[in-house]
Amino acid sequence: MAGRFSTALRTNFSSISPMSPESRMVSVQRVRLSSHHHASRAKHTKHDATGAALFPPFVELEIARYPREQGCYLFHICADGQGTDTWHESIDDAIDQAEWEFGVKPEEWIRSESP
What we know:
Helix content is 17%, strand content 33%. The protein is an alpha+beta fold. It has one domain (2-11, 24-40, 52-111). The protein has a five-stranded antiparallel β-sheet. A two-stranded antiparallel sheet has the order 2-3.
């Protein structure tokens, strides 16, 4: 479910060789949204030829970054694999955003960084 969205976002358009480890985004932390979290306080829309529409409810959040970079992305993932993201200057900023937007407490995050 979340893998479809996450895998699609691992493409890097920088000048780093696509085969180098620096070109791969790394998942740092993730959390599954449940009944004790509230719906997003922000409106996330998707746009296509038919116009704009709201995303279905998000079921998972993932924080990911490129190696050696301080900035990170907070991915908002729907049950059907659709999703969107926001960019943050630090992991702490992304965690703060998730707490404000969904009520996710910092201790709820599961570390997922891989080598």
